[in-house]
């Protein structure tokens, strides 16, 4: 029998095997699939003092060269056989899919889709940067100074490294940090407990593509260590639930990625045509196992809430768990069955509050929480709510879940609350103007666009370029060629 | 090299045969029982206890096994609820004593009285640290709980015994525990910064060669001061859990392999258990050995505390203190540890990887100290 792989910490270019090792567990069998070295907060603090050297290693490359490296890394990530741990093992792309599926519960088909998203982002980095920088000439980033758009531009980095406290829910969230490398900023990553695979494979892909290993920190660590990453990097991203993210809400150095509360709004002018948008609603709710913050978690309509909820329930209710390798699999298993129990209990408890009904209950013929071949799953849930006052109206869970809320169009924007993505199906110019004016909406899709659609030429979930660089005013009495 | 020197010195002074050690322990048990249960030398507490128990330990106890079989676990509430005078052996009456405290975050602390025990313990410990790391005459700095603790006098005595003086920076663990219990983490952090600032000032303005502190404070201090460049050559540490990876981090990254590291396990009730110098085979797992025969550490089964756990298994730490100043049979510590075999220069069991009892079941906040 071969030993299970051990993923060491990566200390800005140096592998470090800790004496503390955390098993990564198969979500169905409970067996350890790998071990990950866990390191203490002191090591994080110590290494954060060296991020200047890590950045210097990346600065040996121009942004253009790094864009090329990203493209090669994208190919390596999608197709390559890459180093896996410090035991001489390797991992092919199919092995990555299978392993990640075994510990996260995601079906293969979803992981492949996530891989493609990451691959696209890496192989289209120029397009991504163009969207983030609004067409800035990358040579200005190389030189920190230049002229474009008829003006002098000087930019300075806000940090020597980008800190990341990653979640385990879905591999594609890693695409958020990819532009940092092209923007010559090292990354210091704390991987999610069940998902060390994607950040580790991405790092190996970058290194195989010619990126300096010093640019990558991979620090499986505890709560204290995560806190050090968030405090110690000048800029950091945290993913988590509302409780976790609330404590960083007012910290401009920390970009918070909590629940998305993404929604689909249908206007008075298009509501009679709602059946035409049913597919869009279904895919926005259930794609990627309903695990993303860009999955719709509320459908907001001026009328026909009961009919729409019924139609969605008819489509989503019967969905059952399938084997992970089945191309038709649409539900993701839970790496931690307790999480499924908690979600199931939370929904049931709030259904006791009058004004909401689980419309899917009749269509799924059985409980929401099911065990299938040793894995724990939550089947889709559509809850019709009388108003936004109901506790289930504006909620997000790690499964296909959405409320259908009836609300007058004139009331919608005062009711929806902060929403990462809003797909507004309307042609009404006044409503469109109000939507464009709303500060609550991070990404706005006008017309029938699925909430899950990502446009890489647009800033997504915060603008990484603006997070990592600031523009200063500059005057030069001497020419740029002068020392 | 220094490890060999220390070991060599110890080997000369301690008889390494388990039988001899056992014989010495049994002798100590008889002597201490005779002392504490004789009206002319014993304390009010133990004489009353024997009267109520209805048996005479001087006759029934012939050795350590008898002590384990006959005595129940010592209740530490006695140290909190009774006046300290009840513990004064008749032979010491009229001789002023030190009062040392433990606990006390809320309510009355536990108090142990003493005269010279701490000096005996720390003079013996002095033989276990190398001159290379604690040069004789070089100044010490203690950064940690001083106040009513035995440790404060003990460290100063140890320094003095080696011809050195000692600077002190206090850390009040009762305050830290209180703010942590109230989840005021920022206050705890600010307090730690305050402590570290003071220590940094001393290290910058005075020549210090030896340091006593807790692991967390050591870590914080090393982030402010290059300890080796500041002149520190040895660190003597105690206070909280040190799992192997943490020890490795301290040795390799905080002390950078250049400063001698002496982890110890101890408290006001026991004294000081030194650790055996680490070898590569230990993989940074630290084993402590009680200062037998004055104190005995056993690792017992949590639900059958009369039974030891097997070697290399986890169990609860039980402490017996056997000196003329203080007799404390079978006190169950709030710690768990791995039972280890005797290892030269010690001919009795050791306790390894000590951590708070129940650490496996629940997360325990040990705070900043």
Give a quick summary of the entry.
The complex is a heterodimer of chains A (483) and B (369). The relative contact order of chain A is 0.13. With 483 residues, chain A is an alpha/beta fold.
Describe the structure.
- The complex is a heterodimer of chains A (483) and B (369).
- Chain A has 483 residues and is α/β, with parallel strands linked by helices.
- Chain A has two domains: 264 residues, Aldehyde Dehydrogenase, Chain A, domain 1; 185 residues, Aldehyde Dehydrogenase, Chain A, domain 2, CATH 3.40.309.10.
- Chain A is built from 18 helices and 24 strands.
- In chain A, the strands form six sheets. A seven-stranded mixed sheet of chain A has the order 3-2-12-11-10-13-14, sandwiched between helices. Chain A has a seven-stranded mixed sheet with strand order 17-20-21-16-15-22-23, with helices on both faces.
- In chain A, helix 11 links the parallel strand 13 and strand 14.
- In chain A, helix 1 runs parallel beside helix 10, helix 3 packs across helix 9 and helix 12 crosses helix 13.
- Chain B has 369 residues and is an alpha/beta fold.
- Chain B has a single domain, classed as Rossmann fold (3-Layer(aba) Sandwich).
- Helices cover 35% and strands 24% of the residues of chain B.
- Chain B has twelve helices and 14 strands.
- Chain B has a twelve-stranded mixed sheet with strand order 4-3-5-6-7-8-9-14-13-12-10-11, sandwiched between helices. In chain B, strands 1-2 form a two-stranded antiparallel sheet.
- The N terminus and C terminus of chain B are likely disordered.
- The chains are: A alpha/beta (483), B alpha/beta (369).
- At the A-B interface, helix 1 of A face helix 12 of B.
Key phrases:
heterodimer, A: 483 residues, alpha/beta, Aldehyde Dehydrogenase, Chain A, domain 1, Aldehyde Dehydrogenase, Chain A, domain 2, 2 domains, 7-stranded mixed beta sheet, 24 strands, globular, B: 369 residues, Rossmann fold, 12-stranded mixed beta sheet, two-stranded antiparallel sheet, 35% helix, 24% strand, disordered N terminus, disordered C terminus
